[in-house]
Amino acid sequence: MVCKGRLARVGSLRLNFIYGRRCGCVLKESRLKARAEGGVKELLEYLGEDVSRPGVVNTPRRFVKAMEELTRGLREPPPEVVFFPLEYEAEVGPVVIENIGAVSVCEHHLLPIILRISVAYVPGNGIPGLSKVIKLVKWAAARPIMQERFTEWIADLLMEKLRAKAVYVKVCGVHMCSFIRGAKDEHHSMTTEAKRGEINVRLRCKRPLSCR
């Protein structure tokens, strides 16, 4: 079986960031990790860095470890959601959880996206545990994303995993690819929304990195 992967090209370099252990890769994980670290070392050399310098000699290992952490959602299964019974027959109105902090990676530049995610949902049969909802949102964000597509996907994910009747998601992101390069605008933020079903609630979403 061919291992599906996400390729990032830097000059003549090809770094293969795999989806994880679920696919039947012929190469062992340790070999792939060594190749990834070697690719980072070559990238540093391409950029003009002295890779034997004490300050960066372990940078390839640290970088790969950091990318593993930032993209853990590609390899780890989603958190299991625990449900609690309603215990009465009246319908529960929208449940609102605002300003969940999360970090994603821009799929175009592999630079961080600092996120605040607010969600509202109308429960179906059973009430999902609060902490599990937050963990599910953070897990979903831990991968390379395009924010517009991510917002639509997480709305579908929450509908399924929360067994919800309706879902509303609002995502506010500060993209480092526009913050530190390109437009170099430290004041920007991007807001996207997605709804599934009938839900009437107003969501607030605080700008990430805001001092207020």
Automatic annotation (TrEMBL):
Keyword entries, A-Z: Hydrolase
| Domain (GTP cyclohydrolase I): residue spans on this chain | 38-200
Q: What is this protein called?
A: GTP cyclohydrolase I
| Lineage start | Archaea, Thermoproteota, Thermoprotei, Thermoproteales, Thermoproteaceae
Q: Which residues cross the membrane?
A: none
- In the record, which residues are listed under signal peptide? none
The pathway is: Cofactor biosynthesis; 7,8-dihydroneopterin triphosphate biosynthesis; 7,8-dihydroneopterin triphosphate from GTP: step 1/1
One Pfam family here: GTP_cyclohydroI
Coiled coil residues, start to end: none
Q: Name one GO biological process term.
A: tetrahydrobiopterin biosynthetic process
User: Per the UniProt record, which EC number(s) apply here?
Assistant: 3.5.4.16
User: Which top-rank group of organisms is this from?
Assistant: Archaea
| GO function term, MF aspect, one | zinc ion binding
Q: Which GO terms describe its cellular component?
A: cytoplasm
Q: What class of enzyme is it?
A: hydrolase
